[in-house]
Amino acid sequence: MENNYDDDFIGEIVVNEVNFVRKCISAESSQDDLWGKLICTNFKVSFIPQDAPSKQKSKLSHLLLGEHDIPLTCLEQVVTVNDTKGKKKVLGSNQKLKFNPTELILYCKDLRIIRFCFDEAGPESAKKVCLAIAHYSHPADIQLLFGFEYQGRRYHESKGERVNGSTPRGGLQTPIFDRPSDWDREIKRTGASEWRVCAINENYAISQSLPEYIVVPVSLADQDLKQYSIFYTDQRIPLWCWNHVNGSALVRMANINDPLQQKKIDQRVFTAITKSHPQRGEVVRSDLDKCLPNIQDIQSAFVKIRQICVIDPFEESEERWLTSVENSRWLEFVRAFLKHSAEMVYYLDGKNSSVVLQEGEDRDLSCVVSSLVQLMLDPHYRSLVGFQSLVQKEWVMAGHRFLDRCNHLKKNDKEESPLFMLFLDCVWQMMNQYPAAFEFTETYLTVLSDSMWIPLFSTFLFNSPKQRAQYLMDFAKNKAIPQGEDQVVYFPPVWNWSQQLSTKDQTLFNNPMYVGKGAACVQNGEVKTFRRTKKTYSSTMRGTSASQRNGLKGGEEPLPRRGSLLSELKPDFSPVKDESPIERFFRDWFSRPADQQGVLIPLLLPSHVALWKLFFLRWVPEACIPKGGPITAYHKLSQLVDEIEILQSKLRQYKGPSSGSTPLPSPSAPLPDQRRMYFKASSPSDSPTPPDYLSSSFPFTPVGNLCRRGIHGTPISKFLNGARIWLSTETLANDTV
Amino acid sequence: MASPISVYNSNALDTHISSTSRESLKMELLADVSLLPGEDRIIDKDIIYICPFNGAVKGKVLITNYRLYFKSSDADVAVMLDVPLGAISRVEKMGGASSRGENSYGLDITCKDMRNLRFALKQEGHSRRDIFELLFKYAFPLSHSLPLFAYVTQEKYEESGWNIYKPMEEFRRQGLPNNKWRITFINKNYELCDTYPTVLAVPFKSKDEDLRRVAAFRSRGRIPVLSWIHRENQAVIVRCSQPLVGMSGKRNKDDERYLDMIREANDTPKLTIYDARPNVNAVANKATGGGYEGDEYQNAELIFLDIQNIHVMRESLKKLKDIVYPNVEESHWLSSLESTHWLEHVKLVLSGAIQVADKVSSGNSVVVHCSDGWDRTAQLTSLAMLMLDSHYRTLRGFQVLIEKEWISFGHKFASRIGHGDKNHADQDRSPIFVQFIDCVWQMTKQFPTAFEFNERLLLTILDHLYSCRFGTFLYNCENARDQHEVRSKAVSLWSLVNSKMDIYLNPFYTPESGRVLYPVASMRHLELWVTYYIRWNPRIQQQQQSPVEQRYKELLALRDEYLKKLEELQLSDSSPSSRLANSSTPNTSSTSSTPSQQYTHLQTPL
């Protein structure tokens, strides 16, 4: 498929194309630029170089997208420039262009900036392609997103390959939470015996944004719930998320609209939650709207951090880099969400309290906080499948408005907000601090974030399960897909990674350092010891403040001094007299070595919240460290783990014939494509040094992916702040020798 | 000690168990202090430690001729302090006999290693008088005509670290002398230059009288001499001090000819002179008789690297301390960090060294100087050499680099650190060497597999930069070291390091002999070295060992365990049907370290 949609990428239609286009490869000189054809299809912007592409080993090869392809959904802004006239225009849909563009600059949602020059191309055709790209990247309707075309065709064309009744969900291991059994399993896994699956929202009878099946306290009858639902925004009754082994539960809910009813409903719901706690633990409510940044703040922070990372000229932004990062507020927000989530961990784990996350609509901030809390408390979610089920449960099914927040239709900029991105960044911060605790890598997180901009998967396309069901029903009707066929089959979620990547490339998701517990700690329906065994702090806990009781005091804030959890350390040398229980909890936790399979709390000192370089700087040529960066350690780790796995399989094989009478059916050594590590153990003949294609951007490459305008000098200019001489070019060329 | 508690000791300082002084310590609390051979108790006392993190903590303090040791008596707040007296820069009395308020009477101790300590005592009966006086005396022995602890200690090691650097051996390793460069002993009695080493490499063509005439024109006689030569292209790094140009713009033909000889040695059209200072500073130095090479130096170009002087660096680190100790600045962390300019200085030093390395690796010889050629010059030459020569990236090679470019070439450790000296406000003190180690750390972060040593070595070096337990960093120059017989009377830090090398080895190390390492000197990548500058904060205590390194060592141990098992199976089971194992075991000896950690909790998800 690479570089070539001529082999009938199913359902894809060429809209417009232009020849003799120059794709800029580096901002400094045009000598590496590529000549070729620029094409706009109903799926992507594509560039086909004249000369056969040099096979770059350093890149992930995407199965659906070539090296020079950009899905239309990934376009943030389409800018045309006429250099001679000094004109520039940002193009939308159905627009006119009064000048012939000499240049097209595509600003992408995945932070790439790609430039094409039309100096040798026919001016009219160039203009047409630009207009087509602008038009097709602003679809009037969700059904015009290419996934609808693609998945319909794919369904029918692959029909012959499907055997009736076999692996109903394409062998997908990730639970989708669209059926009661997925919830039942989660209830059992977490030991939430006082909670039940409730079907009152079947066919979305109650709420437009809740999933069909939700989990509620056993003490609440369907009738009660129906009655209460009318008071909640969008009828979103409280939604169970997760249970701690100590019995406390994590619950999320929307605001109650009627202030007169609020107290009464709160009381009943909270009483029910308390009843579902084996020790009748108190309930703590956290009003997220009051203590966390709102979606507009988050969007504007993201716009700023993107600006300084990829748009501002590199050298000029060096001097005030740290202040610029601070002013963007992105890291501040990342820290705020982590901090708030850590506080919730204190209530659930340290105080045996149930926690209710409350937010206006319960569809944005709650998604971030509830998933982070679970990630900190439950090692299951730090496995790959567990993580994907978490996203499915707390984002997709809980009704996060992916369509609006991603702004796929580019209709309403006000609704756009990178909450999911913020969540991924928070996960990265945890991963950065506890590198052995996650089964997956930062490459996985980055590829997942990029997948938001490929409109072929149902995961990130819809605002709610209902919207998804509706569109997919229409879609099935239009495409003549038989009723009763599972949506997951005909419009699959992103989780089946072989849709995008080869088996080999998928091994880049595997973290060689991971300390896992194999079968995700389920035994006899009980969660096995994933929390620390010694809980010395609970016995030494000092007094609890009265305001924290039951969270029912007229809806008052139960938490002491929001958002200043760790800043409460007293200033210089003034004796710390009364340490609050929450401080004590964190101090205790940090005084012990972290258990990778236990509760994990991130360090929240501002000095320990870092910029996620792979995500933000992977396209920036000046920031790329050739043959350096954390990937070089990952390379060695992978090789070692691969070697260990070969040894393990040999040992198993050895034990087979000698221990029992029947030989084991397992193969002698893992087959090359079954090996879990991207980098294979080196043989004595190999050089043990990291391969030349490794760089801090790996597996991505800045080459041709970030061309800002009007920057001159050589890439080595990054070395030269305060100095006056360019480095010799010989060294540049010999850099990796 | 029962539970793993927050311990605020400098755990990079290794102590040895001694039985000699143990007897004298009758106090139970202090019974587990491991004293060094030769270390003696001076005083112990009940005291209150005003911990910035836990508040007032009751306990006992023990002061020896080497350390200040504190342990809390309250099991609930278990706090331990173990501070070498050498790390103390200032001791002050806090409050008076009539001071009001709880714990307002006591001692305030400022340390050189980014922390402060405060103790309170009972107000009655001048209870602090003796401890203050003794502490003051033993923390600043040189101000009290007492020997530094390095001269008192009785530590013994099998290998003497003093042998790690032999100038002639190092020159031979570089391929010297050759037909362009000769070794001269002209300075064997420190007569040519009293702050230089005795063995120097100079252009083959230069005569001894040339060297003397050049010495007269270079600040403190620090003439241009070779530090490093590129094996293939023969380009060299030459270091020196500024020329004595002065206000009148004096010229010295001998100096000009001498520099041209350096250029001629590998026959390139131009010699590049890197003046580490900002241009304006170099101009200002003319007023005090110094200056820089002007147009009269033909075939040479001069480049200023804009690195600030020792005073600017000292103030910068002071500002950094203000925002990290005791608490990390919360509200405007990044802009506060930026306003210390510490990372910006690190960036300038690194980018200067990158330019030097790049110039040399492309075949051009360079001369590096600043004013006296013992601060910024040492930073630039040693960092450039670290980039160019993989030998210096090994554990032993790095020791050689420090011995050579810093110790033997007269970085004024005694003045910059103020070993045993009470004059805490001395304007000569400056963290130039700390800054160099920070630059090295930045490089190890960007190239995790390129260095044989780990972060722990860097922390150990910085701890003993102050501790005065070893002779390595004492005195300003070789001349002074000879006079004080430091090599025969004191132990080298490298004796300690090389006696247990494995803890300082980076398991990820992959030797790449020809590789030139160019770090990216950009604010995007430079990080604050939190495990050094913020290590006294109990919140990051548990993360001191790099978790990635830790995990790799565990996996290595697991690999070795499996290999052993497989070998055993092969031995015990010699039936032909099961001889499968020998087939394709991958390279197992790629890493030399064989850690002996437990791997009980170790499970790979299979």
TrEMBL record, chain A:
Belongs to the protein-tyrosine phosphatase family. Non-receptor class myotubularin subfamily. It comes from the Eukaryota. It comes from Collichthys lucidus. GO terms for biological process: phosphatidylinositol dephosphorylation. This is Myotubularin-related protein 10. Residues 535-572 are annotated as: Disordered. Residues 536-550 have a biased composition (Polar residues). It holds the Pfam family Myotub-related. Coiled coil: none annotated. GO terms for cellular component: cytoplasm; membrane. Residues 177-616 form the Myotubularin phosphatase domain.
TrEMBL record, chain B:
It is found in: Cell membrane; Cell projection, Filopodium; Cell projection, Ruffle; Cytoplasm, Myofibril, Sarcomere. Residues 582-596 have a biased composition (Low complexity). The keyword Lipid metabolism applies. GO terms for molecular function: phosphatidylinositol-3,5-bisphosphate 3-phosphatase activity; phosphatidylinositol-3-phosphate phosphatase activity; phosphoprotein phosphatase activity. It is an enzyme of class 3 (hydrolase). Residues 340-386 form the Tyrosine specific protein phosphatases domain. SUPFAM superfamilies: (Phosphotyrosine protein) phosphatases II (SSF52799), PH domain-like (SSF50729). This is Myotubularin. It comes from Collichthys lucidus.
